[in-house]
Each structure stands twice: as C-alpha cells, then as structure tokens.
Design brief:
alpha/beta, Rossmann fold, DNA polymerase, domain 1, 2 domains, binds magnesium ion
C-alpha cells in the first residue's frame, strides 16, 4: 500500500513544534515554562497552581491560550508575545530537511497553534524560510486551536483543499483525528509506540526526516 499512498498528494501540512524539530532541543519546554510564568503573573497565583491550570486548559481545549481567553478574558496577543520570547540557539539549520521538504511537489502549509511571527523566527532558525506556501496560524482561526474541528474546517475552506490529496504530519496524535476522518493521510511523528488514537494514524515515524525519506523513496519507485 505504501507505494500508492503518496502518489496523488499535492498538499503537505506540517505541524511546527516538536514536529519540524526534535523535542530534545528543549524549545517547547521553554514555551511550556513561560506559559506557567504568564499564568502565575496574571492570576497572581503560585507557579504550582498556574501549572495545574495550564495543563487543565490544554487538556480540555487543546491549547492553554483558549482556556485563558474563555475563562479569564485573557488578551491572546499579550500571551503569544510572552510565551514565545525564547532562545532559539539550540536549533540548527538543516539543509537536508529543507531539501527533503522541497522534493515534495505541491503546496506545503505550516499548520500551527502558535502565531505566524513565532513560526517565521523558528523557520529561519531551521533554515526553512521560503519553503512554505503559507502559515496557517492561530490568528487565522480567531485563536481556536487544534484539535478542535473548527480549526481544521477553516483550514480546508481557506485553501479550498481536496482532503484526499492532503498529507498531514503532527507529533500530537489527537490533532490527526479530524483530518483522518475527513480523508487526509495522517503521519504521527513520535518516539512513542503506543497511542490511543491509533485508528486515526496511517503512519508513524520517529522523526520528520524518517517520514520524508519513506515518502520520497515510495515516490521514486517506478511501476
Ligand atoms: Mg506539535
């Protein structure tokens, strides 16, 4: 089945955090830490209490920000500025990642719960500037995050996507569910072998490079 899975695809959706770079870079842990700080400062509570709220909202809504907006009328732009004020030094430019993504024909779209300003900085740090046709960020959905259905629906309608031609990479399995149910080919990027969303995952790879290698190999096979 592998050989035919990617033949007629022409839209490639990439999640950003912990998908285009490894969790081992510590980039996302910096953001995670700053979210806790933000909540603790804003609500004037201890970091422990802030952490509980952060995780509760993340679990319930898909993003901490959405919970803060809904429950505390939080200014989303203030939150996004604060949490993304991080150190990018651990990221390295990757020629090979750039080449492999460019090998795919069709449009590549970045699909992130972050904002486009942060995404652009990160893409620059990874040497991926100019690779993506567009960045579908959290502002484009009026801050409604993945994995909510409305987020995916907005994406599909904005770019007028034919879902059977779409491949989607994400490190969070729950984000893949709606896409899968709508006919998208889903790829989970994870070191874990277990997932309670297995039925919504077409392929799983440890890294984005592994996934792209497999796809490129399958596209090169002549019949
Ligand atoms: Mg991610």
């Amino acid at each position: 089945m592998l050989n035919n899975s990617f033949k007629n695809k022409n839209i490639w959706l990439f999640d950003l955090d912990n998908t285009l770079y490894s969790p081992k870079t510590g980039i996302f842990s910096q953001i995670d830490f700053r979210m806790k700080k933000f909540i603790s400062n804003k609500l004037k509570i201890s970091e422990n209490e802030a952490f509980n709220i952060q995780k509760k909202f993340y679990k319930k809504y898909g993003s901490t920000l959405f919970g803060l907006m809904r429950n505390f009328n939080c200014d989303p732009e203030e939150f996004l500025r604060f949490v993304h004020d991080i150190d990018f030094r651990n990221l390295k430019k990757s020629d090979s990642l750039r080449k492999k993504i460019n090998f795919l024909s069709g449009k590549k779209i970045l699909y992130t719960n972050g904002d486009a300003d942060y995404a652009k900085k990160l893409l620059n740090a990874l040497g991926l500037d100019g690779v993506f046709y567009d960045i579908f960020d959290i502002r484009k959905t009026n801050y409604i995050p993945k994995p909510m259905k409305q987020s995916f629906e907005k994406l599909v309608s904005l770019y007028d996507l034919k879902t059977s031609e779409v491949v989607y990479f994400d490190d969070l399995d729950k984000n893949l569910k709606t896409a899968f149910l709508n006919g998208v080919t889903t790829i989970h990027i994870s070191e874990e072998n277990e997932s309670s969303y297995k039925m919504y995952i077409d392929f799983r790879f440890k890294t984005i490079i592994n996934a792209l290698d497999m796809i490129i190999k399958s596209l090169k096979i002549k019949e």
